[in-house]
Design brief:
Elements: E1 4-8, H1 16-26, E2 33-38, H2 43-52, E3 54-60, E4 66-72
Parallel strand pairs: 1-2
Antiparallel strand pairs: 2-4, 3-4
């Protein structure tokens, strides 16, 4: 079973959510998953993740926020 890290960036002003997510990914070991709680869909992040070799699943939460599950594809 892989480990999961969690980052909550809800309510942070741009570009801080993107910066915190990218920093967490830089230190994410292969095989671990990053879960992100965010207040809106980070559309620019999706292109970066695809380009850098990450898979991302996005789920809407009942409170109007989103949860991203990010992992290495390789």
């Amino acid at each position: 079973m892989s480990a999961t890290r969690f980052v909550d960036v809800c309510g942070l002003a741009p570009p801080e959510p993107m910066e915190r997510i990218l920093e967490a990914l830089r230190t994410l070991p292969q095989g671990e998953t990053l879960r992100v709680h965010i207040h809106r869909q980070p559309y620019p992040l999706y292109d970066i993740l695809a380009r850098e070799g990450y898979a991302c699943a996005t789920a809407a939460r009942d409170d109007g926020t989103f949860e991203l599950t990010i992992r290495h594809t390789g």
